[in-house]
């Protein structure tokens, strides 16, 4: 394996993990040295200071970032994350993974990611709006419908995308709905966008249960860590569309367990009202770590990155690990899973690609000024996921790769080929 070179600008556990993954994949496909660093490292990064006037009249300064990893195949695409511990290295890693993901599922995008180091729950609605608009204002020179198209991520939502679209549109002088995706329907959002990532996870889980594990979905038990947009929508879809039984759910404060099955719709209503799953009747409490090692058919980490450590990987008792979050399994933990060889993995590049696919559909609809119904969107989504799944399985069989390495090599190779075809600008 070639030497892992880590840029001091982006150095973080997440970026080191992404670089190790890249080097392993590049070695596996004998990627020429002349193209490796150009394919690995981000094209550009932006760091901004965001002074915001608080409701009490004081001023607080926040730090914001945007990393555009690749622009070789089209505008860059990626979410905006509001999280208290966000750093530039984490954003850069997420942008790298997004480049590979877009290439894997056949989208004409490069990868990007952005965000603000802030705890959004500690802001009032008016403070959150001011922060969102200021962040977008600072990015205007670097983004556009043909340059970089943001979307929601952890800590952001449809309303924030609406504020950001309005900020950009006011600067340009007329409405530009295609500047962001994941907007409210009334502002040009797409049917199916809110549930796209979770619905895609559920679709792939059902496909792998049937095709690989030879297990009817209605006989499967599901444990989901993370009950935000992705985890909750995946849980609903698995119950409603596949007939699976969800036995455990968790959020950042802990989780709930009922081996006989949780009423997911009622749990979602409770969570929306209480802001937590704690105290939900009809289930017993369970910690996040304990949830990860429950005996179940399918484990879905749907929260944040790096939760499946080597220690956790050795204790997993699932048959299928479906990575709904970005980078939930560390590089070392992945080696443990490969040695165990008793757990099938749907890697994050494939598993959670539903969100960016439907974001692409939203961008297309905005630019054509036409809109599709929900059934059309989801039918197109599932067809595109199935094509990507088939490509990953073919790569896995052809080269005897792990499923993760198959997905990574497909994505990285496509990005590298685009860079080679364009050449190196003098």
From TrEMBL:
Record bears the keyword Transmembrane: no
Superkingdom as given in the UniProt entry: Bacteria
Domain (Glutamate/phenylalanine/leucine/valine/L-tryptophan dehydrogenase C-terminal): residue spans on this chain: 190-423
Catalytic residues in the record: 113
One GO biological process term: L-glutamate catabolic process
Transmembrane helix among keywords: no
One GO MF term attached to the UniProt entry: glutamate dehydrogenase (NAD+) activity
Transmembrane segments: none
Site (Important for catalysis): 153
CDD domains: NAD_bind_1_Glu_DH
Family: Belongs to the Glu/Leu/Phe/Val dehydrogenases family.
Record InterPro entries: Aminoacid_DH-like_N_sf, Glu/Leu/Phe/Val/Trp_DH, Glu/Leu/Phe/Val/Trp_DH_C, Glu/Leu/Phe/Val/Trp_DH_dimer, Glu_DH, NAD(P)-bd_dom_sf, NAD_bind_Glu_DH
Positions with a binding annotation for NAD(+): 197, 229
Binding site for substrate: 77, 101, 359
Protein name: Glutamate dehydrogenase
Keywords carried by this UniProt record: NAD, Nucleotide-binding, Oxidoreductase
């Amino acid at each position: 394996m070639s030497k892992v070179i880590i840029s001091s600008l982006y150095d973080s556990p997440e970026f080191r993990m992404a670089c190790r993954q890249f080097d392993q994949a590049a070695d596996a496909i004998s990627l020429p040295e002349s193209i490796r660093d150009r394919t690995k490292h981000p094209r550009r990064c932006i760091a901004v200071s965001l002074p915001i006037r608080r409701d009490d009249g004081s001023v607080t300064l926040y730090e914001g970032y945007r990393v555009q990893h690749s622009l070789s195949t089209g505008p860059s695409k990626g979410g905006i994350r509001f999280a208290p511990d966000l750093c530039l290295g984490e954003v850069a890693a997420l942008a790298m993974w997004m480049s590979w993901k877009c290439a894997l599922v056949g989208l004409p995008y490069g990868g990007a990611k952005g965000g603000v180091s802030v705890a959004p729950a500690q802001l009032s609605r008016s403070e959150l709006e001011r922060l969102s608009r200021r962040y977008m204002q600072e990015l205007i020179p670097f983004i556009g419908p043909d340059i970089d198209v943001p979307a929601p991520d952890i800590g952001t939502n449809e309303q924030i995308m609406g504020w950001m679209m309005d900020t950009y549109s006011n600067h340009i002088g007329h409405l530009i709905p295609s500047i962001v995706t994941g907007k409210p329907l009334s502002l040009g959002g797409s049917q199916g966008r809110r549930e796209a990532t979770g619905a895609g996870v559920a679709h792939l889980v059902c496909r792998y249960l049937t095709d690989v594990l030879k297990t009817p979905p209605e006989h499967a038990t599901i444990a989901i860590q993370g009950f935000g947009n992705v985890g909750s929508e995946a849980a609903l879809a698995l119950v409603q569309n596949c007939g699976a039984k969800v036995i455990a759910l968790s959020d950042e404060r802990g989780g709930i367990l009922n081996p006989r099955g949780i009423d997911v719709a009622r749990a979602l209503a409770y969570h929306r009202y209480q802001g937590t799953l704690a105290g939900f009747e009809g289930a017993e409490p369970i910690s996040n770590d304990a949830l990860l090692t429950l005996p179940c058919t399918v484990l879905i980490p749907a929260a944040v990155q790096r939760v499946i450590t080597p220690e956790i990987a050795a204790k997993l008792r699932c048959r299928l690990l479906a990575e709904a979050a970005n980078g939930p399994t560390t590089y070392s933990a992945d080696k443990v899973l490969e040695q165990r060889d008793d757990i099938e993995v749907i890697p994050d590049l494939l598993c959670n690609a539903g969100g960016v696919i439907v974001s692409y559909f939203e961008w297309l609809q905005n630019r054509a000024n036409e809109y599709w119904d929900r059934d059309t969107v989801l039918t197109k989504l599932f067809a595109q996921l199935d094509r990507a799944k088939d490509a990953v399985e073919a790569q896995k069989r052809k080269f005897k790769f792990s499923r993760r390495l198959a997905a990574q090599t497909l994505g990285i190779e496509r990005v590298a080929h685009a860079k080679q075809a364009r050449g190196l600008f003098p």
